[in-house]
Amino acid sequence: MGSQTETHLPIVDLSDENLKPGSEAWVSACKVVRTAMEDHGCFIARYNKIGEELCESVVSAVEQLFNLPLETKMQETSDKLFHNYYGQIPFLPLYESLGIDDPVNIKGCQKFTNIMWPQGNDPFCESVNEYAKLLGEIDRVTKKMIFESYGVDTQRFNSFIESTNYLLRCLKYRTPHNDETDLGMQPHTDLTMQSVLHQLNRMEGLEVKLKNGEWLVLDPSPSFFVVMAGDAFKVWSNGRIRPCEHRVIMNKAKEIRYSMGLFTFNGDITQMPEEFVDDKNPLRYKPLFDHFEYLRFYDKEKIRDPDLRVKTYAGT
Ligand SMILES: O=C(O)CCC(=O)C(=O)O
Ligand SMILES: [Fe+2]
């Protein structure tokens, strides 16, 4: 549990049978997770419930998706930020992505599938839904660890999870041509509460910025899931949790890279737990945080610097 790899990011083994809430292994994993989220804003979750077969069917599902005509992919429209088709961006020519709203619910997957394939595509719908539900489990277990490590009670955890909105982003990066940038995605922090990222077809490219400022290339092993804090976790924790800065570089890639990200947003107005505020830690943010309003604020103001963005929107 919590072994240090040469990468200096802890790996927490969620498949460990001893990892039951309340057990010794659980309590020590909670500490590892909290420290990693405060130091680097991320850690690796090892998780073996997403097997080879499911991974392969999701790879073939997203291949089919990205092979659809551009006009079809562009039909995905939503008034929520990040829920649309992205691609053909002049400074990010390698990158394309589509988002599935509420993918943990079969209805969310059906709605998306019907836009892309009006004649239907059950294999796509079913494999993506199964995959998203398992990513959702990683999200919930790791959040439970974080909440517990700060002493936030189960009832508040449960109501927090109930109001969580999930978005599954499917991402594709093609290989750069000779004269092109190798930047797949520019350095950023996510505007989420938490993001769970998976390098789906084992192509590396995702890099995170560690506490010491070094960029670390993450191992694309199929059982490794990167659990990352987004901006909202910083606000929720009164600044203790550090949102993770990350980017995608495609320089060694000889193949198309597919990755998946389960993004979470808070559907209700989030109230910061009072545990975070005391004499030594005065209130840094307004105690009520409207996550979707924060997304709209970003869309309007386009503040790229994460510290400034959070401070401008939520600072006291
Ligand atoms: O492709 C990846 O691994 C990262 C994607 C990402 O950072 C994002 O969609 O915000
Ligand atoms: Fe990201």
UniProtKB/TrEMBL annotation:
Short name of any one Pfam family annotated for the protein: DIOX_N
Protein species of origin: Stylosanthes scabra
Matches recorded under SUPFAM superfamilies: Clavaminate synthase-like (SSF51197)
Family: Belongs to the iron/ascorbate-dependent oxidoreductase family.
Protein name: Fe2OG dioxygenase domain-containing protein
PANTHER family according to UniProt: 2-OXOGLUTARATE (2OG) AND FE(II)-DEPENDENT OXYGENASE SUPERFAMILY PROTEIN-RELATED (PTHR47990)
Highest taxon of source: Eukaryota
Keywords: Iron, Metal-binding, Oxidoreductase
